[in-house]
Amino acid sequence: MHHVEFDTGLTVLRVTSPRSTVVPELVCTRLVDESGPIHWVDARNTASTHVLYDQAPSATTLAPLRIARAFTAYQHHSLVQALARQASARSSMLVAPNVDSLYHDDDLDEWERERLLAASLSTLRELGHSLDVPVLVTTTGDTVSPRLDEYADHTLESVTTRVGTRLDGDGVESVGYWDRHGWQTTIPYWADRYGTTDALDPAIAAHDRGLLAPDLTREWEPPTTDRASGPLTRSTPAIDGGEA
What we know:
The protein is elongated. The protein is an alpha/beta fold. Mean pLDDT is 81; it is low at 232-236. 28% of the residues are buried. Helix content is 33%, strand content 25%. It contains eight helices and 13 strands. It has a seven-stranded mixed beta sheet with strand order 4-3-5-6-2-7-8, sandwiched between helices. Strands 1-9 form a two-stranded antiparallel sheet. The chain has a two-stranded antiparallel ribbon with strand order 10-11. It has a single domain (2-194), classed as Rossmann fold (3-Layer(aba) Sandwich). Helix 3 runs parallel beside helix 4.
C-alpha cells in the first residue's frame, strides 16, 4: 500500500520489472480518491486485466479507466499525440508505463527513436502542465533513456525489500507491504487509522519507571469470606475418617 501525493507535471517512476504491479496499485488508488477519468497508454502489456481487478476494491472502480495499447514505437507515439484530443482538465491522471521501452526496438534507427521519444515525452509533460494533472510514466533500469531525466519534473523509485515493494521519493508514504502471506503494515498506517499521541499516559510512564506505591502493584490476594454465605470453609477428612 502506497500513498503518493502526485504533483502536476511528469513523474518518472523507475521500476524493477516491466510488468511491475506498482502502477496498477497506484492507478486504482487514484481512481478511488478522484472522480475524473484516467488515460493509460500501455506498452509491454502492463495493463493486465487480472492485476487491475486484483488491485481494485470493486469492478465499478475501474469504469473511468481508459486504456490504449501500443505494440510499436510508432503506435505509442500516435497514441500519446491523441491524448491531446482525449484528455481534459477533468482527467485525474495520465499514465504511460514503460514509456521508453518500445523506442529501443531494433526496427528504429537511432536518430528516429530519439526524435520520437523526445516528442512523446514533451507532449506528456506539456499536457500535464496545461491540464494541471499528474502524468506518471515508468522505466526499468535496463532500458532507461537519458531523455527521461531531461523531461522529468519529479522522480520516484521502486525498491524491492524482503517484506514487499517500497517507493522512495518526495510525497511518498509506504503504509504497508503485500506479499503472498498477507499485509505487512507500518507505523504510519496505524497512525492514520487511529491517530497519534503526544506523550505517554502519566500513570503508564510512572509504572514503567517503578514509581508507583508498592500496595498499588502488589499481587492480588483472594478474599477469605463470601459475601453471601459468610466465611469460606472447606471439608477435609479427619484422621479417624470423620469430618474435621
